[in-house]
């Protein structure tokens, strides 16, 4: 009993300890931005991701631990465009941190720096939980990563001017490697041109656009609405007429609906990493694209 | 695009005749190059056009976001069908005040619940403003449920809120009724907070710079609502004082928890209540001290609540009041000494077993505790206050709800309510709650 109490007290004390003060604290909403900040910030930054690959970025809980993290953040990077509207605004108002409020240098809304796809002409909830200012899942177009990367470096320099040279040289190095990787991916993704796939949620649109693939349907009847039996039956029928090459899903999706369609319509099922850490191979941003392309090319054969 | 084509044709036609004498293959080569150049230009124009349309759509769709200059507006509609085995007009929670209409369930049959109209936006880099009005269908009145400004421009974990807001006492008090997991408030909230406590006042809150979430705060209020009560002239300074603290964190990826403790001190003046059994109106003057301990735990596989999740919630209330109890305050006005220690708690669990379906159970328990009424000066007996006779009310509630999207919910609830001494009430509620407009964020 006594030891149990000691352990409890010790862990309480450890939990109370101040977070690392030396580094710039980066609060990323999604793992892809955490990975990007890590690439560009090196050992000058301490990075935290609110969402894990297994969690749905649309539906996170505004947990107390996230408020604590937000309170100590120097820079917040989120996809934005209402993706995190169910939880992020609460973290802003509860954190008592003026450095990272929207509009200040400490907040990057990544989707504002790229050309967005699927901006709805009609904004009506009868069409599902649509994102009124366009599709926010921008990170699966490698060109967008480069664009957001430039903004991240700019902000690092602004917030931590002492280490400006460090950030600039890391950015130069990263951009060079990214440029080379993009050329390689262009080549590798050639066979994907025109490949029809069924997605779970409309979170693959930027990749589909980049690789000139074709979205042949989605398991969700409407964005944000879970798959229904009627919709799946309809999809099976449609796939019988014009079959897709693959049905893909992200780690945070329940594979049930994808498996159903895969079996009924005889289409290969392809789990994709979706974000950094989504599969063992997608351990960084480079791995994310390597693995995504590899899995799709394999399914296309 | 046409212009480019025309130019190219004109250019080709204007080639001097002398050149025609040159070898034909060479000319073909030139033409081919020209064609390539046209293609390239056309491609560029196409790119530029699509970027321009995209930029235009993006620009035109901006005002949809709350971050644009217009405030976020949302409307909550809610309606209930209630089937009650006992007349709600006679409702009381024996052993406790407040009574009757202040704590009663909705009327029998169909009724439109309170509709809610909310506006919120950042005012500037310092403040954020929120106004939430509730429109009550029965007396055609609009009330201000919450109307406050809140700092966003302070650092070091400080936040100040001023105006009318739901007090940070306990857990569920801060959550709007439409986001509750059951149709009605727990019994303990009704008898200790008069349903839901919203104060006019100011709140200071500080979040500690620790990895484990820890906040401390205080609220100074006017004392406009139960358990406080103002005398007609009111008073300067604060009529209610609340201290609160919360600690919270994660256990692995799947569990998040939070506990809280709060203490509310008020000095009610002429706080009246109806005693339905005695048929008189009594009042209380004195001091009221309330302690609330709360705990909440949320579980979902890997922290992804989309498919399955479990939410456990409980609160314990303890109140000490002493002062004068006035019998028949508008008439005879006989004063008695009064001293009470009362307590109550509830515990509930809600499980989402399918993406759109949840089921839950709540248990309510109150203890009217030790109440001593000193009738030596008035010549009355404790029997003249039948509502305060010792009793331990309890209640079982079961609910199941279906939410086709994040914006709508239909709920069926059954409860067996032992609030009236010896007269259990079977209550069935069928309720819808929908939200229109801006997507609100959900408190943990
Ligand atoms: Zn989405």
How is this structure best described in words?
The complex is a heterodimer of chains A (301) and B (444). Chain A has 301 residues and is of the alpha/beta class. Chain A folds into two domains: 20-184, Nitrogenase molybdenum iron protein domain (Rossmann fold, 3-Layer(aba) Sandwich), CATH 3.40.50; 190-299, 3-Layer(aba) Sandwich (Rossmann fold). Chain A contains ten helices and eight strands. In chain A, the strands form two sheets. Chain A has a four-stranded parallel β-sheet, covered by helices on one side. In chain A, helix 2 (31-41) links the parallel strand 1 (24-28) and strand 2. The model of chain A is unreliable at 15-20 (pLDDT under 50). Chain B is mainly beta and 444 residues long. Chain B is 14% helix and 49% strand. Chain B has helices at 2-13, 17-20, 24-61, 187-193; strands spanning 72-84, 109-112, 115-122, 127-136, 141-151, 158-166, 198-207, 213-221, 240-251, 255-266, 271-275, 280-299, 309-327, 334-354, 357-374, 394-405, 408-417, 425-437. In chain B, strands 1-3-4-5-6-7-8-9-10-12-13-14-15-16-17-18 form a 16-stranded antiparallel barrel. In chain B, a hairpin with a 7-residue loop joins strand 17 (408-417) and strand 18. In chain B, helix 1 runs antiparallel to helix 3 (24-61). Chain B is elongated and about 130 Å long. The interface between A and B is large, with 58 and 61 residues. Zinc ion (ZN) binds at residues 58, 131, 137, 201, 203, 223 of chain A.
């Amino acid at each position: 009993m006594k030891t149990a109490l000691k352990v409890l007290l010790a862990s309480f004390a450890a939990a109370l300890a101040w977070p690392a003060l030396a580094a710039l604290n980066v609060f990323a909403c999604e793992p892809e931005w955490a990975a990007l900040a890590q690439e560009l910030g090196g050992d000058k930054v301490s990075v935290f991701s609110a969402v894990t690959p297994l969690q749905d970025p649309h539906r996170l809980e505004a947990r107390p631990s996230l408020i604590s993290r937000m309170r100590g953040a120097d820079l917040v990077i989120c996809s934005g465009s209402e993706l995190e509207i169910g939880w992020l605004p609460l973290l802003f108002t509860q954190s008592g941190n003026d450095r990272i409020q929207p509009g200040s240098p400490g907040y990057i809304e990544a989707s504002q720096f790229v050309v967005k796809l699927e901006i709805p002409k009609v904004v009506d909830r009868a069409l599902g939980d649509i994102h009124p200012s366009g599709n926010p899942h921008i990170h699966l177009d490698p060109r967008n990563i480069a664009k957001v990367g430039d903004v991240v470096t700019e902000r690092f320099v602004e917030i931590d001017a002492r280490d400006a040279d460090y950030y600039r040289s890391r950015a130069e190095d990263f951009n060079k490697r990214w440029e080379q990787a993009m050329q390689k991916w262009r080549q590798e993704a050639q066979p994907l041109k025109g490949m029809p796939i069924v997605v779970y949620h409309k979170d693959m649109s930027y990749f589909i656009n980049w690789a000139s693939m074709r979205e042949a349907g989605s398991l969700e009847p409407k964005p944000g609405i879970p798959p229904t039996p009627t919709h799946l039956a309809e999809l099976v029928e449609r796939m019988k007429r014009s079959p897709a090459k693959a049905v893909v899903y992200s780690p945070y999706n329940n594979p049930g609906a994808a498996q159903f369609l895969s079996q009924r319509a005889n289409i290969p099922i392809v789990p994709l990493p979706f974000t950094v850490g989504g599969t063992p191979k997608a351990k960084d941003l480079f791995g994310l694209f390597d693995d995504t392309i590899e899995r799709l090319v394999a399914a296309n054969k | 695009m046409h212009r480019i084509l025309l130019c190219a044709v004109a250019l080709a036609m204007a080639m001097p005749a002398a050149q025609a004498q040159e070898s034909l293959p060479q000319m073909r080569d030139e033409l081919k190059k020209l064609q390539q150049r046209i293609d390239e230009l056309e491609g560029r124009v196409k790119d530029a056009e699509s970027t321009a349309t995209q930029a235009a759509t993006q620009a035109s769709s901006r005002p949809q976001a709350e971050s644009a200059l217009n405030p976020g507006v949302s409307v909550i509609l809610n309606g209930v069908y209630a089937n009650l085995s006992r007349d709600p007009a006679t409702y009381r929670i024996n052993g406790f005040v407040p009574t009757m209409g202040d704590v009663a369930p909705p009327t029998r049959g169909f009724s439109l619940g309170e509709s809610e109209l909310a506006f919120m936006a950042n005012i500037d880099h310092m403040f954020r403003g929120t106004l939430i009005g509730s429109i009550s269908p029965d007396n055609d009145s609009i009330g201000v449920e919450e109307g406050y400004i809140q700092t966003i421009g302070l650092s070091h974990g400080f936040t100040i809120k001023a105006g009318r807001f739901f007090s940070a006492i306990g857990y569920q008090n801060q959550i709007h009724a439409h986001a509750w997991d059951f149709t009605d408030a727990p019994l303990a909230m009704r008898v200790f907070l008069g349903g839901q406590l919203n104060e006019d006042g100011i709140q200071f809150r500080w979040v500690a710079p620790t990895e484990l979430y820890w906040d401390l705060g205080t609220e100074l209020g006017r004392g406009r609502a139960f358990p406080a009560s103002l005398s007609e002239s009111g008073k300067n300074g604060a009529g209610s004082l609340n201290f609160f603290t919360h600690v919270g964190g994660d256990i692995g990826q799947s569990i998040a928890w939070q506990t809280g403790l709060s203490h509310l001190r008020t000095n009610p003046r002429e706080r009246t209540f109806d005693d339905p059994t005695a048929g008189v109106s009594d009042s209380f003057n004195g001091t009221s001290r309330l302690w609330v301990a709360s705990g909440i735990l949320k579980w979902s596989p890997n922290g992804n609540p989309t498919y399955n999740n479990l939410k456990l919630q409980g609160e314990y209330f303890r109140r000490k009041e002493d002062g004068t109890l006035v019998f028949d305050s508008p008439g005879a006005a006989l004063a008695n000494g009064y001293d009470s220690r009362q307590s109550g708690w509830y515990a509930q669990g809600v499980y989402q077993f399918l993406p759109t379906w949840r089921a839950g159970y709540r248990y309510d328990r109150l203890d009217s505790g030790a109440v001593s009424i000193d009738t030596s000066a008035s010549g009355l007996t404790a029997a003249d206050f039948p509502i305060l006779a010792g009793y331990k009310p309890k209640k079982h509630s079961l609910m199941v709800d279906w939410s086709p999207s994040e914006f709508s919910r239909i709920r069926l609830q059954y409860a067996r309510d032992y609030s009236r001494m010896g007269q259990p009430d079977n209550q069935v509620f069928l309720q819808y709650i929908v939200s229109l407009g801006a997507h609100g964020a959900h408190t943990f």
